[in-house]
Specification:
This protein is of the alpha/beta class. The chain folds into three domains: 101 residues; 288 residues, no CATH class; 170 residues, Nucleotide cyclase, GGDEF domain (Alpha-Beta Plaits), CATH 3.30.70. The protein contains 24 helices and 26 strands. Strands 18, 19, 20, 21, 22, 23, 24, 25 and 26 form a nine-stranded mixed β-sheet that branches. α12 packs antiparallel against α13, α22 runs antiparallel to α23 and α23 packs antiparallel against α24. The longest helix is centred in the last third of the chain and has 25 residues.
């Protein structure tokens, strides 16, 4: 993609980078791919901002905590306690003139069986609820699946509930959200002065960040427990949704698309323990007023929430402030937000997309116009930091911004724009390198560019120990006679492309192409000790790729080819040979010539690959090498032993075993051959699986039987051709 972009006008390509980035990030935001990360960032920011902010003093909390369960178990037994406890609690709070007493405790069933008369405990709570107009009991609404039992769903509410506890009117709100309800047991429902819905819905990660303030059932809207005590009279209240705002009895409440309030949690709640309150009530009844742990006056004109924090009571929720938050804190938080006016405005999609466009565009302009990399790095970082600071400042003013989506767009824009600019700015240099790489290998090119003064003078270089390769196409002269010039070029290009790739795979340098032949070497310009291993590996890869070459030639309707490869290791002279106008970075010397002679002998034995004894000695790879012959090549006095690597780079156990067996049998056969034991040699060579070697050595043995070579013969075969 970058290759295509760099051919476009600079600003058009940069604009495409921006557009593609905006589309990608916009789609990811739309499908909520950043939701979890956004929540984590928001939670961290909110906790840092609000950890020292206390709940408004007009709200008090009384908790059934672990201490209460332990302290009251000897008196009241195990939880659930008799309902008279809540009646006593209401009486205690009435002594202090609490503004409202809100029970975040579902009392949906009577004590005992339904057909029995009310228990004394239930009756006490019912009477207390009748006598105190500031009590609020809990209800619950939810949406259950049909599988839970269709007969239980969408049942009408008891008579009078809608008229007494639902809002007078509510417009603009969604309907049909809930199909099941839970209310206080019948006698308590008839006498309770107020009803508040205590449901809460977590986000997909299980954290409670929002709260619904109005709960709809069959087109009737009931206030949440957090909203109910702030309304004048629910059945006289009116609600209206206008966009992202909910208007109820003078409250202007910002809400999200889901019609929920984003909660602005507090860091300090300072709850009372139920055990302490009941202990104080008992002391009052006993006349011990001087030693009260908690006085009723502490709750004067306060909204008092009663809930549970003991782990076993199953009302512990995960919130941005803590993984273990009592559920009643959620309702108290919403009430506190409504009372102190610190109502959070949730992120709006429009603002998020605008921030995405602005941060990404500014980043692109910075990268595209600034020339120093430090500025291309620091300016986008400053843009991102500035946006994060802005989001933090706005959070202090109750405005929540999506931080992840714009910063993701900024990051991707920076990466894309910088990558494109890097490619554009280096295009001239890369173009020159590509041109030069047609004549020298990439490693040589790097050496030339790094040390130009050393290579611009035409002089022979230094002696290096290297491995040299020669390879050519078998019977190319005969093939070319029957091909058009264009077909010959096509055939050679196909062949050389695959062979060069194999050489470069193992860090070789392609020296030159000579007609149908190829010359390469290992060990320069970067010195390496395992040049023989790399050269043999490359040669084996070339043999493997020959099948692919022939497949391509067949597809082009060109004749199949075969190759021969020869390798030799030794000291060669490496350097630049030529003139100032044309340099040839190459190797020369006797060992280079020997590599060429070894390649020429592959036809003699019907083999594709031969290596000299020096390459065989330098080889550390565990590759079975079959001894082939002892040859005195033309132009060289000293004979050389030849070997043939017999397996691929990753042979199967069976192939390796066969190759090792061939090495053993060929070694035995050659031993008899060198000792002039012609009958034994004939028998052993006849068992050799390779037809070329078998035919050649059987012919030699028959000839030497007729014309013995003499006692001074050392088993050397004299090659008469190059």
């Amino acid at each position: 993609m970058l290759n295509r972009l760099k051919r476009l006008p600079f600003w058009l390509a940069q604009s495409l980078v921006l557009i593609v980035t905006l589309l990608i990030v916009g789609v990811l935001h739309h499908i909520q791919a950043f939701e979890r990360l956004n929540h984590q960032v928001y939670d961290t920011r909110l906790e840092a901002k609000r950890q020292d902010v206390p709940l408004p003093e007009d709200i008090a909390l009384i908790l059934i905590d672990e201490a209460s369960l332990q302290a009251l178990e000897p008196v009241l037994g195990r939880f659930p306690w008799p309902r008279s406890v809540y009646a006593d609690l209401a009486e205690f709070l009435a002594m202090g003139n609490a503004r409202a007493v809100l029970f975040d405790i579902l009392l949906t069933e009577r004590e005992g069986r339904a057909e029995e008369a009310l228990s004394a405990s239930d009756q006490q709570l019912v009477v207390t609820s009748w006598n105190h107009s500031n009590l609020y009991h809990s209800g619950l609404m939810r949406n259950e699946s049909v599988d839970e039992g269709a007969q239980r769903l969408n049942q009408p509410m008891p008579d009078g509930v809608r008229d007494r506890h639902s809002l007078l009117t509510a417009t603009g709100l969604e309907k049909g959200r809930h199909n099941h309800y839970s209310l206080p047991f019948d006698a308590l429902l008839e006498t309770t002065p107020h009803l508040g819905i205590v449901g809460a819905e977590p986000d997909r990660d299980g954290v409670y960040r929002r709260l619904r303030l109005l709960w709809e059932y069959h087109s009737a809207y009931f206030p949440a427990m957090s909203l109910a005590p702030l309304l004048n009279e629910p059945n006289q209240s009116r609600a209206r949704r206008d966009g992202h705002h909910l208007f109820v009895d003078g409250f202007d409440i910002p809400i999200g698309e889901d019609e929920q309030l984003l909660l602005n949690y507090y860091g300090e709640y300072r709850p009372y323990s139920m055990a302490g309150v009941l202990d104080s009530l008992q002391r009052i009844r006993n006349g011990d007023i001087a030693n009260l742990r908690i006085t009723p006056d502490e709750f004067e004109d306060k909204l008092v929430y009663i809930g549970a924090s003991a782990v076993g009571l199953d009302d512990i929720k995960a919130t941005p402030m803590s993984q273990k938050t009592p559920g009643v804190f959620i309702h108290a938080t919403a009430t506190g937000n409504l009372m102190d006016g610190r109502l959070l405005h949730p992120p709006r999609a429009g603002w998020t997309y605008l921030a995405l466009v602005l941060t990404s565009t500014l980043t692109l302009l910075a990268v595209a116009r600034l020339n120093r990399f430090s500025l291309q790095l620091l300016v986008p970082f400053g843009i991102g930091l500035g946006y994060a600071v802005l989001a933090d400042v706005l959070l202090s003013h109750n405005r929540v911004l999506d931080t992840v989506t714009p910063l993701a767009g900024l990051t991707l824009t920076w990466m894309g724009s910088l990558s494109h600019r890097f490619f554009v700015e280096s295009s001239d240099k890369r173009r020159i390198k590509r041109m030069l790489s047609q004549y020298v290998s990439p490693s040589v090119l790097t050496d030339v560019l790094n040390r130009p003064d050393e290579v611009l003078h035409a002089q022979v270089g230094v002696t290096e120990h290297m491995t040299v390769m020669f390879s050519d196409v078998r019977n190319f002269t005969g093939l070319s006679e029957n091909l058009a010039a264009r077909d010959i070029v096509q055939l050679l290009n196909c062949h050389f492309a695959e062979m060069s790739a194999a050489i470069f795979e193992f860090d070789g340098t392609v020296d030159k192409f000579i007609g149908d032949a190829l010359m390469a070497f290992w060990g320069a310009p970067i010195r390496i000790n395992n040049h023989a291993d790399l050269a043999v590996s490359a040669a084996l890869r070339m043999v493997e790729r020959l099948d692919h070459v022939n497949e391509q030639l067949e597809a082009m309707r060109l004749p199949q080819i075969d190759i021969g490869i020869g390798l030799n290791s030794g000291d060669v002279i490496l350097g630049n040979i030529g003139s100032d106008q044309h340099l040839d970075y190459t190797v020369i010397g006797d060992n280079v010539n020997l590599a060429s002679r070894v390649e020429g002998l592959t036809k003699t034995y019907g083999l594709r690959l031969l290596i000299s004894e020096s390459t065989h000695r330098a080889l550390t790879l565990d590759i079975p090498c079959v001894p082939v012959d002892r040859v005195q090549v033309k132009g060289r006095q000293r004979p050389v032993d030849l070997f043939a690597p017999w397996t691929g780079l990753d042979p199967s156990p069976e192939a390796r075993a066969e190759a090792e067996d061939l090495v053993r049998r060929m070694t035995e056969a050659l031993a008899c051959y060198y000792e002039q034991r012609w009958e034994d040699a004939l028998d052993l060579f006849s068992a050799i699986d390779h037809p070329g070697l078998r035919k050649l050595y059987r012919a030699r043995c028959w000839q030497f039987q007729r014309e013995p070579p003499g006692k001074e013969w050392a088993g050397v075969y004299t090659a008469t051709s190059k």
